[in-house]
């Protein structure tokens, strides 16, 4: 097998039972004959060594250059060896500024910038410069809100009651500080014409014959009908409502209220929302994270070349600060996820799919901190929250000590809270809301809606399956600094009340189904996040 790229060298070394530090890999990639160099290096590795050092590689290369070794290997000083097919030149897109507007959208600015010289190319003539020297002590990655091992749900009716009670309790707490709400049972006996507020879960939304909106709000004591007149300036907020989300309304009770069939005329409507003044936390040093998802290994449309170019780029000096890799689900294509999916499978066994995924993961630099959560194609329960993979799959994916957590999870990376959620509910938000509020071309706008509702999957009973648990893992108790999703296979990012929302695209070309419904995926891009500034750069590894 040809060994022109660092990624292939890493994978070859791993298959022979070795890891190597980044500098060692770069040196091998720059050798005149990387195959021979690798053989020599492995053959003469110290007995106890599991990780090959740059010193060791350098020694072997020098010896052979001196004529002492019997294999013709040396560091290359021309660019002939390493600029083969696989070393692409990823385009860089414009970064997102730290705009203060509510929706600082920068979607669809992606496009390869071919004039960017040497972008992503491994410069074999200066191998020592493409060496990274990560400060491992400065790293930190903590996980919160992980359902894995905590699931108590039995699927019984009582569990649905408790999960909805918990959702209501926690989201109503966020709203109660803003309105002076009374329970619906108390509102019922208030005199007509009075003012009050209600915090409730949306149980029904209907338009009336005259074009007004009737919203039924439910709390733990009952339900109450609330009327939003069509000419009110907040009437278009009704378009954003989903069933089962928790909101607050303030208004005036109808004159006949204490007759028993009163109604609240709504004067204002509140979402739990993110405060406009929210100040995200940032890392104390310049360090970056690659936010990706939807790799779909095992699918005939998985883009192996783009992936390898991405992995190669991670080995370059340009990527030396990319120390974290966060994967928001759909590692593999899975089996039986959608009708007729098997016709497009490259690997039909789910375990083999994970084994192959793991091979691709090996191409990534060994020093990176990796965190993965499952998606709807992965081999865990479909209902959310999804626990992280079982032991058998963890074993298969143990490459580079990757960490695994449930969907959703909040991961705090050097002080930055990143809420990772695969994103199945985005399909629902996009289907239910008007186009300008949520659409596939601007997936971050649908994410803004989830932030506004402070819940990653508000609506029950639609596309998103919910597993009833004692507590609702899908509520956003605290505001994340970054919200990272995938699933819709579209790239888009922007800031909502200073929170960066990123949907990360995919590594799978358009499938037959996607073609039939006109989904045009953004495939082969890697959004790179500066953890110290929360600025974003998107790199393209696909060729178009
Ligand atoms: O889903 C990728 C995107 O495509 C996501 O928006 C759902 C949609 N999708 C893909 N296949 C189907 C089928 N067969 N029915 C409905 N929606 C579909 P992913 O789950 O990552 O493949
Ligand atoms: Fe996917
Ligand atoms: Zn998905």
Please provide a written account of the structure.
By secondary structure, the protein is of the alpha/beta class. The chain has three domains: 6-81, Helicase, Ruva Protein, domain 3, CATH 1.10.8; 141-151 and 277-540, Purple Acid Phosphatase, chain A, domain 2, CATH 3.60.21.50; 178-270, OB fold (Dihydrolipoamide Acetyltransferase, E2P) (Beta Barrel), CATH 2.40.50.140. 22% of the residues lie in helices and 20% in strands. It is built from twelve helices and 21 strands. The chain has helices spanning 6-15, 22-29, 34-43, 54-65, 157-176, 184-188, 304-314, 350-362, 391-396, 424-432, 443-453, 512-516, and strands at 19-20, 51-52, 91-92, 103-105, 141-144, 195-207, 213-219, 222-228, 246-253, 264-270, 288-292, 322-328, 369-373, 403-404, 409-413, 416-420, 482-485, 491-496, 499-504, 525-530, 536-540. Strands 3-21-20-11-12-13-14 form a seven-stranded mixed β-sheet, covered by helices on one side. Strands 4-18-19-17-16-15-5 form a seven-stranded mixed β-sheet, covered by helices on one side. Strands 6-7-8-10-9 form a five-stranded mixed β-barrel. Strand 6 (195-207) and strand 7 form a beta hairpin. The model is unreliable at 67-89 and 94-130 (pLDDT under 50). The structure holds 2'-deoxyadenosine-5'-monophosphate (D5M), fe (iii) ion and zinc ion. Zinc ion (ZN) binds next to loops.
């Amino acid at each position: 097998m040809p060994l022109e790229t660092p990624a292939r060298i890493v994978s070859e070394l791993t298959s022979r039972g070795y890891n190597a530090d980044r500098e060692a890999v770069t040196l091998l990639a720059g050798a005149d004959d990387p195959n021979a160099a690798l053989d020599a290096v492995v053959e003469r590795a110290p007995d106890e060594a599991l990780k090959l050092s740059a010193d060791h590689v350098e020694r072997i290369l020098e010896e052979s250059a001196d004529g002492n070794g019997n294999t013709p290997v040396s560091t290359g000083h021309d660019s002939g060896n390493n600029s083969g097919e696989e070393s692409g030149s990823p385009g860089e897109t414009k970064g997102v500024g730290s705009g203060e507007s509510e929706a600082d959208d920068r979607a669809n600015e992606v496009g390869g910038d071919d004039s960017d010289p040497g972008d992503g190319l491994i410069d074999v003539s200066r191998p020592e410069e493409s060496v990274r020297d990560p400060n491992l002590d400065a790293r930190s990655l903590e996980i919160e809100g992980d359902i894995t091992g905590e699931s108590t749900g039995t699927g019984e009716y009582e569990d649905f009651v408790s999960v909805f009670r918990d959702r209501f309790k926690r989201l109503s707490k966020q709203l109660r500080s803003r309105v002076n709400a009374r329970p619906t049972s108390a509102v019922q006996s208030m005199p007509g014409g009075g003012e009050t507020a209600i915090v409730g879960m949306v149980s029904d939304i209907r338009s009336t014959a005259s074009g007004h909106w009737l919203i039924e709000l439910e709390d733990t004591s009952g339900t109450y009908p609330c009327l939003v007149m069509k000419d009110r300036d907040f009437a278009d907020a009704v378009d954003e409502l989903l069933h089962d989300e928790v909101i607050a309304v303030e208004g005036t009770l109808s004159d006949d209220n204490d007759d028993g069939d009163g109604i609240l005329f709504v004067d204002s409507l509140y979402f739990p929302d993110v405060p406009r003044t929210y100040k995200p936390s940032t890392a104390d040093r310049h360090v970056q994270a690659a936010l990706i998802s939807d790799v779909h290994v095992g699918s005939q449309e998985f883009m192996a070349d783009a992936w390898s170019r991405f992995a190669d780029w991670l080995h370059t000096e340009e990527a030396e600060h990319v120390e974290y890799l966060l994967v928001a689900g759909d590692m593999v294509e899975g089996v039986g996820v959608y009708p007729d999916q098997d016709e497009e499978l490259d690997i039909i066994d789910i375990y083999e799919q994970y084994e192959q995924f793991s091979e691709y993961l090996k191409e990534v630099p060994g020093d990176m901190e990796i965190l993965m959560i499952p998606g709807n194609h992965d081999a865990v329960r479909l209902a959310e929250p999804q626990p992280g993979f079982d032991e058998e799959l963890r074993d298969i994916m143990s490459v580079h000590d990757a960490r695994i957590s449930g969907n959703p999870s909040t991961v705090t990376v050097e002080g930055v809270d990143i809420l990772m959620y695969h994103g199945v509910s985005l399909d629902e938000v996009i289907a239910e809301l008007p186009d300008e509020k949520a659409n596939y071309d601007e997936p971050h706008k649908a994410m803004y809606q989830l932030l506004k509702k402070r819940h990653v999957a508000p609506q029950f009973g639609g596309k998103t399956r919910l597993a009833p648990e004692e507590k609702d893992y899908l509520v956003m108790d605290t505001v994340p600094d970054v919200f990272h999703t995938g699933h819709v296979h579209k790239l888009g990012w922007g800031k909502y009340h200073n929170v960066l929302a990123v949907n990360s695209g995919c590594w799978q070309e358009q499938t037959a189904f996607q073609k039939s419904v006109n989904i045009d995926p953004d495939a082969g891009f890697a959004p790179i996040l500066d953890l110290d500034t929360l600025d974003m750069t998107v790199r393209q590894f696909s060729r178009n």
